[in-house]
Amino acid sequence: MSDEEHHFESSDAGASKTYPQQAGNIRKGGYIVIKGRPCKVVEVSTSKTGKHGHAKCHFVAIDIFTSKKLEDIVPSSHNCDVPHVNRVDYQLIDISEDGFVSLLTDNGSTKDDLKLPTDEALLTQLKSGFEEGKDIVVSVMSAMGEEQMCALKEVSPK
């Protein structure tokens, strides 16, 4: 044993952006990483075991941020990466001129690093509701270091 002191740089808690799951256990409605993108599975088909071994799972999935359709074929006994997907609701405070929104978190602080949604229907609904002075709660989905608004609802004042 040496008497050297070891200094480590501080970082986050080390929570991984994904976790492994056997391909045969991933179901429709679940999540999977295809080509490095977090996706929601919309279709799964499994082929029978062939002459050379493994049954294969064919995944059809939609990227949760870009809505692009992606496909992958993986042997059912192999592990796939599954993203940690979180969905949090925030109250809308303000929409800035530069395309960012100001949101109120549960603990009373503000979150100002989120851009307006790219989905036209959601963007229109958000802006018109805000201009009419309605109380709006937005759902923010986050996975693999990305965040984006995915839904909103108007709440009536109590």
Please provide a written account of the structure.
One of its GO terms (biological process) is positive regulation of translational termination. This protein is mainly beta and 158 residues long. It is built from 1 helix and 11 strands, in the order E-E-E-E-E-E-E-E-E-H-E-E. A hairpin with a 4-residue loop joins strand 7 and strand 8. It is elongated.
- Examine the coordinates and then state which fold CATH places here, giving the name of the CATH topology of the largest domain: OB fold (Dihydrolipoamide Acetyltransferase, E2P)
Helical amount: under 10%
| Number of domains as seen in the coordinates | 2
Q: What's the β-strand tally?
A: 11
Query: Mean pLDDT, as a whole number?
Result: 86
Euclidean distance between termini CA atoms: 65 Å
Approximate strand percentage: over 45%
Q: How do the strands of the widest beta sheet line up side by side?
A: 9-8-7-10-11
Provide a count of the helices: 1
What structural class should be given to the helix and strand makeup?
mainly beta
Principal-axis shape: elongated
Supply the CATH class of the largest domain.
Mainly Beta
- Let me know the CATH homologous superfamily of the largest domain: Nucleic acid-binding proteins
Supply the CATH architecture of the largest domain: Beta Barrel
The succession of helices and strands, N to C, reads EEEEEEEEEHEE
Radius of gyration: 21 Å
Q: Please summarize the sheet with the most strands.
A: 5 strands, antiparallel
Unreliable spans:
6-14
